[in-house]
Amino acid sequence: MLSDSLRDFSSALERWRLWSLLGWLDIRQRYARSALGPFWITLSMGVMVGSLGLVYGTLFGQPMTGYLPLVGNGFVVWGLISGVLNDSCGAYINNANYIRQSDAGLWTYIFQVLCRQLIMFAHNFVIVLVLLAVFGIDHPASLVWFVPGLAVLMLNLTWMAQVFALSSARYRDVPQLVAAVVQILFYITPLMWRPTMLSRHAWLITFNPFASLVDLVRSPLLGQTPAMASWVVGLCLAIVGWLLALWMYARTSERVAYWV
């Protein structure tokens, strides 16, 4: 059964022109007849980073030279994470007609979500480049860890997207539940605060795998090397998660057309 899941996965990868086109068309359709187009994504994210960074930096008594890059890079990474988790819930529901009438394979619609969110991430990455240009980076060599960290993050987001897509197709309460959990995770993940600020409640980071996933991508952008614990958590989570996703896909993929 797992071999069938892997075969469907590889078959969907070969259709990269289809899901990349679908992802890009989603972005174009969302911002049709707009002067700035997809760069509204960048503008809205930039305004949020600037306003929240100044407010919370003042409240926490943090110097802006270190705090704004922390918040800005964290928000850009979290935008990718939250976007995938929320959008994946509708991956099959929103493509119900295609699923019933075509044999493109269910993984195609997961890749569509990932492609769409990566395009949005690329637009938001302009903020990261601005922060690097304005505030600089202490150890540029640490940037080499950015690509491996992003790869581990995407490995985890891919299996999460499949699990949430299948669960949402079967149980329509899942999208609301995921949205609520993502909102909670936003506050308990070190995005607007440093892990050292929670000396008495370190368990919020220890038992929050998303803190490790954010660290893998954000630390290199801050001139730091991701913690070894973050690599261990990210890779172990990916192994367990992919086994779960492939098992769920093998058991439920044939029923998705009836659920949606």
From TrEMBL:
Q: Which UniProt keywords apply?
A: Membrane, Transmembrane, Transmembrane helix, Transport
Give the signal peptide range: none
Q: Does the keyword Transport apply?
A: yes
GO BP terms, alphabetized: lipopolysaccharide transport
**Quick check: keyword Transmembrane in the entry?**
yes
TM segment ranges? 38-60, 66-85, 106-137, 143-165, 177-193, 228-250
The family note in this entry says: Belongs to the ABC-2 integral membrane protein family.
Put simply, this protein is called: Uncharacterized protein
What is the protein's species of origin?
Paraburkholderia sediminicola
